[in-house]
Amino acid sequence: MKPILIAGISIVNLALISYSIAIFSQNRKKLMSRIVLTFLTIGVITDISATICMIIGSGHIITLHGVIGYSSLTGMLADTVISYRHARRNGLNSALSSRFNLGSHLAYFYWVIAYITGAMIVMMH
């Protein structure tokens, strides 16, 4: 396996950890905290970095898994932007509605599905 792909796999694992910390913290406290924003941001940055590594390493921009991955990244990026907007409008440590939490959970769940499909593709090779 190409070193750039190995780097991408390692980096996407960091994205999984970061997103998980953010979403589980948000769910537990039902607040928009600095921890949530920090780990969402780290997750998006590492996710973008991993995606770039995987595109370079595979040599393919458009694949079925790529489309799933791009759309899940877009979902997490949107959740991060909406989270920052919420914090700006309502302040840090502001309460989150169940609808807000549901949206975040759906974006995260879809991202995890993309992560799992990618892991399954790697294991099949």
Q: Whole-number radius of gyration?
A: 15 Å
So what's the CATH class?
Mainly Alpha
Physical arrangement of strands within the biggest beta sheet: 1-2
Round the mean pLDDT to the nearest integer and report it: 96
Structural class: mainly alpha
Number of domains: 1
Low-confidence stretches: none
CATH topology description: Four Helix Bundle (Hemerythrin (Met), subunit A)
Rough outline? elongated
H-E order: HEHHEH
The CATH architecture would be Up-down Bundle
Beta content comes to under 5%
Helix content: over 70%
Number of helices: 4
Number of β-strand runs: 2
Tell me the span between the first and last alpha carbons: 10 Å
| Largest sheet geometry | 2 strands, antiparallel
Description:
The protein is mainly alpha-helical and 125 residues long. The protein has a single domain (3-124), classed as Four Helix Bundle (Hemerythrin (Met), subunit A) (Up-down Bundle), CATH 1.20.120. It is built from four helices and two strands, in the order αβααβα. The chain has helices at residues 3-29, 34-58, 64-90, 98-124; strands at 31-32, 94-95. Strands 1-2 form a two-stranded antiparallel ribbon. Helix 1 runs antiparallel to helix 2. It is elongated. The protein starts with a helix and ends with a helix.
